[in-house]
Amino acid sequence: MTLGAIHDIGYRHYEGRRLGRAYIIRSLYVHNLRAAYGLGRPARAKVMPFLLAAMMLLPAAGSVAVLAITKEPNTLIVYSQYATIMQVVVAIFLATQAPVIASRELRFRVVPLYFSRPVVPPDFTLAKVGAFATALFVLLAVPVTVLFVGALVTRADKMKPLVMPDGEVARAMPLGDHVLHYLGALLGCVLFALVLAAIALVIAAFTPRRGFGVAAVIAVYMVSSTMVLIVQGIAEARTNFELAGWAGLFAPFNLVDAVQVRLLGAEKAAVAVPPGPWGGPVALALCALLVAGAVAVLSLRFRKAGLS
């Protein structure tokens, strides 16, 4: 006859300090921020984000080098235009890294494990959106900072006025204006990061297969920009400049550029921006609506996954 036995294997109740919900959210934020650049993952996961980061830096470094050699102030890339100029590289970063942030837990069906702790879908969503927006902000802000530092080092504010081939005089920007334009460009980078990251995460969350997610994200950005560019070209050809400006609101990069131009006093990078005093507020309201809507949709998506 076999008798049962009770073994003391050493389990005991946790008696330490409970870190709580805020610590969990912060940990999720840091984990996703690291994942956006492949940190803590195999080497192959780091190749694409760091390669794209290097590609983002090259034009800025080249612009500063040309400025230092030629001493022509107009050779420095305008801070606020950098994100739009480099939108292809930015779109590739969004397409390759958004599935890493939004769809891995969905693909492997581990979202319920996260919700078994004191964290709710809105917290989970905000941690992911915040982390990916931060990663994108770093990608955009570092080259802009390189331009700013390069302008200070080369003393671009002390350069003499130059006469351009068309007879226009290109004057060096005073130091105070450099600082104001740089700070305005950083605000633009924040807005670019929030809007672009939110849209990309929504698309990736509904395409759990990584390959489809990459294709879907880049298609949305590239197709929307191309279609808007075509509409703007036709509108300008028919001298309907007002339509050309409002059409830009249907492309994410042009939308944020409209806010920079109308509300931050930046030089436009898009073909046209919305005219009149309402162009900036409408563009900003659309940006806020996009981000808030994306967070709500992602929260519902993760909540549904957590119940399955």
Walk me through the structure.
With 308 residues, the chain is mainly alpha-helical. It has one domain. The protein has twelve helices and two strands; from the N terminus they run αααααααββααααα. It has helices at 20-36, 43-70, 82-85, 87-102, 104-107, 111-114, 121-153, 175-205, 210-237, 241-247, 252-264, 279-307, and strands at residues 162-163, 169-170. Strands 1-2 form a two-stranded antiparallel sheet. Helix 8 runs antiparallel to helix 11. The longest helix is centred in the middle third of the chain and has 33 residues, at 121-153. The protein is globular and about 90 Å long. The two termini are 45 Å apart. Mean pLDDT is 87; it is low at 162-167. The chain crosses the membrane at residues 47-70, 82-102, 131-154, 179-206, 212-231, 243-263, 283-302. Keywords: Membrane, Transmembrane, Transmembrane helix. It comes from Actinomadura craniellae. This is ABC transporter permease.
Produce a short descriptive summary.
The chain crosses the membrane at residues 47-70, 82-102, 131-154, 179-206, 212-231, 243-263, 283-302. The protein has 308 residues and is an all-alpha fold. Helices cover 69% and strands 1% of the residues.
